[in-house]
Design brief:
42% helix, single chain, elongated, 24% strand, 3 helices, 74 residues, two-stranded antiparallel sheet, alpha+beta
């Protein structure tokens, strides 16, 4: 477990993410992290559930309109 100390950052409060944790998250400066509440606390991840739902919709369209997309690719 890694303990992160809250600190004043301008008019906000935040915490510094150690390089080792960023490496394990496969995240870098400028990336977004998503915090989700779970029964025993919170999870921090790089997984964006909204993007996943958009990709599901795109896959459905690509499957349904495969012939049209094939013609457009020519």
């Amino acid at each position: 477990m890694t303990a992160l100390k809250l600190t004043q950052i301008g008019n906000s409060v935040g915490f510094i993410v150690p390089k080792e944790l960023l490496a394990r998250l496969k995240a870098d400066k400028g990336d977004s992290l998503f915090v989700r509440e779970v029964p025993n606390g919170f999870t921090v991840t790089t997984y964006d559930p909204e993007f996943e739902s958009q990709m599901d919709a795109a896959r459905a369209i690509m499957k349904k309109r495969r012939a049209v997309l094939h013609e457009l690719a020519k």
